[in-house]
Amino acid sequence: MEIKNKIALITGGSRGIGRSAAIHMAHKGLDVIITYNSNKQEADKVVSEIHSLGRKAAALQLNTSDVKSFDGFFGQLEDCLRNEMGGPTFDFLINNAGTALYSLIADTTEEQLDAVYHIHFKGVYLLTQKALKFLNDGGGVVNVSSGLTRFSNPGSSGYASMKGAVEVLTRYMAKELGLRRIRANVVAPGAIATDFGGGRTRDNAEINKHIADVTALGRVGLPDDVGGVIAFLCTDEAKWINGQRIEVSGGMNL
Hints:
By secondary structure, the protein is of the alpha/beta class. The chain is 41% helix and 17% strand. It has helices at residues 16-27, 40-52, 70-84, 110-131, 157-176, 200-203, 205-213, 223-232, and strands spanning 7-10, 31-36, 57-61, 90-95, 135-144, 183-189, 245-248. A seven-stranded parallel sheet has the order 3-2-1-4-5-6-7, with helices on both faces. The longest helix is centred in the middle third of the chain and has 22 residues, at 110-131. 44% of the residues are buried.
């Protein structure tokens, strides 16, 4: 009898940390489904790279802030699982998709706050809720948070507050899903050199140097510094890690 390979679903998997996690998972023998918001070309490149590693892969469009689209998305996901992955279920959900917000409390608009709420908390909550019937017992959820829930940088209050809410939610997930042996953990990156937030950490020399100066390991983080940790949490070696916040920041602001 053929043994079904384990499958991970990663939101926002066409770039940055999500892309790195997808590639690391493929190296560890998982099949991977990624979602992308608008950049199908980059998503297809990730799929091709995973195929080159001998693993199954697919990319589906999803706007994680549009909760009304979730039912349609899961219909597409079920078809993908059955037709391409040997489904109809998967093993790991990685809630990674997100956007930045840099605004002081005094300047933040209701519309800006609603936007980060929908993508960073409401979307994570309801996408996970709808994923539960497709998620195999003994699987796991990894929610991507931020180092900004531990230390405070002016201008990040809205974004960081939603990430803080996700960290609390993760502990509840670990508790409530424990009877199904589904683990839930948080990975909290420090500042990472990607195109996130317009690429400011990667491209602004002053910001880059400041981050390196306040980081114990003396540099800005890279996507592969985080992607491997997310992939590790989806292996049997991490089977007893549950309800934890793992900061991956190189020792930023210690």
